[in-house]
């Protein structure tokens, strides 16, 4: 199994913490966010991860050199950001031999059970399984509606009038068919705006019951520092 780990964010709202380190390396309980992601991948037998870099790439590369992980890590530098979907599309050869592969947004801190998600994915023969969580502020998220079987029947990115509180967690399990939904002509592709709306009624929602938080703001970062109990909780 392989995974894309999208980690090129600036972390602008976390300044001054991110003046000297990229967002994916902000520390949580003494360990960088990226550390937890790579340990999570190892726990669930993901053998190889591709990480995209943009802001302070050398700092990330040094971290990877100085720390040993069981997971094989490949990095790609983006001089110009390609967007969450663009990174996946331009590196699709990385997963060409995989029946299914994970996509993770490295902004999040989570101990999600990827084994359960994998079992759920196998039951449904669609291009994508999207991880979901119950959002406190749905207007700030990508929001889905599910039918009784768990199929996504509507999706809206940051809707003014949310139809539910089930939100995109930035954790996906995709099949090769996903690439047929990518716009061929766009240089920069956003997964939420350009891909997910096309997958309505072609993806299933997996509700994450474990801990998950987006540490994109100082408030969320402080909250995560207080609440995080580690990958085993």
What are the defining features of this structure?
transferase activity, 233 residues, single chain, Spore Coat Polysaccharide Biosynthesis Protein SpsA, Chain A, globular, transferase, Mannose-1P_guanyltransferase, nine-stranded mixed β-sheet
Q: What would you say this structure looks like, in words?
A:
23% of the residues lie in helices and 28% in strands. The longest helix is centred in the N-terminal third of the chain and has 11 residues, at 33-43. It has six helices and 13 strands. Strands 1, 4, 5, 6, 8, 9, 10, 11 and 12 form a nine-stranded mixed sheet that branches. Strands 2-3 form a two-stranded antiparallel ribbon. The chain has helices at 33-43, 57-66, 83-90, 114-123, 191-195, 218-227, and strands spanning 2-6, 27-28, 31-32, 48-53, 72-77, 100-105, 108-110, 128-134, 142-146, 152-157, 166-175, 203-207, 212-214. It has one domain: Spore Coat Polysaccharide Biosynthesis Protein SpsA, Chain A. The protein is an alpha/beta fold. The two termini are 24 Å apart.
